[in-house]
C-alpha cells in the first residue's frame, strides 16, 4: 500500500493550493519541487524575502497565504527533488541529492507551471544577454538587482519587472517592445470580456504609469533585434523603430516574449496535447476538473494553459476537489458545491487572457528568425541549418532532430522546440496544429548514470 494518496509535482500556486485542499480532507500528500523552497516562479522565496517584499510588490507578498496553508501534518514536502520519469500506476521517479526514489500513489497532479518562450535573434546567446525571468529569479533569491539594464520583448511580465526595478531604485535604461498597433487592434474585441478582470487590467495600467513616471524610455513596435559585443565589453543592441535603425549600449540585456506551458512532463506521460492558437503553444487536454486521458493524472496551473497565479491557484483547488471525489472522500455534489468559488475566480482571472494573448502575440521575426540566428544553444544549430534540413527532405521535428541533433542537448528541446516548429510550419505551408508536439522521452531531466543504476528492479519504493 502506498504511503501517499496524492503526489503533487510543483510547489507553485497550483501545487500549493491543491496540497492544502487535499490535505484538509485527509489525503496524504507528497509535494515535490526542484527548488529549495515553496513558491514556484511567481512566489519564489517569498517566505524569506521579508525585506524585499516592498519592491517586489503586494501580490508577491500575498503568496505567503499559500505557504502558510501547507503547515499540515499530512503534507510531506521534498525540495531539491527532480522528477525525471512518470510511469503507469501512476509511479513517480525522482532524484534528490544524487539518490533516486520511486513513489507511487493513486493520483498524481502535474503542476509544473510555465517556461519563458524562447526569443531567438542574432546575438541572443552573447554574455550579458539573459531572460527577464532569470533576472527576476536573481532578484528574489539573492537580492541581485539588474542595474542599467535594457528590457526587450513584450508581455505583462516585462512591465512587472520594470516596475520592480523602479521601486528597487534601479530603473531600466529603456523598454524596447515588439507589440504592434495591429496586435492592439486585434485585442480590442476582447476588451469587454477583460473588464471582468478589471483589477488585473488596472494593475497593468498602473505598472505602465509607474514606468512612465520614472522617465523610462519606451520604443514600441520595435523589430529586427540584433546584439553585438563592443570592444569595451558592452552590448550594442540594435533594432528597427519607426523605420529607422537604432542602437543602444548596455551591460545587461534582459529579453522576454511571454510564457508558454511547460509540457515536457505531461508529454512524457503520454497525455494528449492540443494546439492553442491564441497562445501559440501546445497544452495538455483536460476536462473542467483538470483530469486527463491518462489514468490517475491531473494537470493544473500554467502547465495546462497560461492564466497567471490566481488562475493557477483556482485550478489547483478544483483539481484537488476532483481527486478527493475520485478517492471517495467527498460526493460529486459536494465537489461541485465546494468548487463554485474557485470556478468564479477561474472565470474572472481568465477573462483578461484573450486580450493579453492578442495584444502581446509573439512577432514573426521571433517565431522565424534570420538564418544566422542560433536556435539550439546546446548543439549550436542555426535557423539556417533548420531550413536547409527541411529543403533536403526533413518533413517533421523528428527528422530534423535526427539529422541535426537539435533538441538532444541538456535542455532537451525546451529552448528550441517552439521555434523549430514555427520554421517548419513556415517552410512547409503546414498549420501549427498539423505538426504534432514532439515526444518527450525519459529521463525528462538530465540524471547521472549512478541515479539510473540505483533503480534496480528489486528496489523498494521510498518516500
UniProtKB/TrEMBL annotation:
Residues 4-316 form the FAD/NAD(P)-binding domain. GO terms for molecular function: oxidoreductase activity. This is Opine oxidase subunit OoxA. It comes from Roseobacter litoralis (strain ATCC 49566 / DSM 6996 / JCM 21268 / NBRC 15278 / OCh 149). Keywords: Oxidoreductase. Its EC number is 1.-.-.-. Gene3D superfamilies: BFD-like [2Fe-2S]-binding domain (1.10.10.1100), FAD/NAD(P)-binding domain (3.50.50.60). It comes from the Bacteria. The gene is ooxA. It holds the Pfam family Fer2_BFD. SUPFAM superfamilies: FAD/NAD(P)-binding domain. Residues 374-424 form the BFD-like [2Fe-2S]-binding domain. PANTHER family: ANAEROBIC GLYCEROL-3-PHOSPHATE DEHYDROGENASE SUBUNIT B.
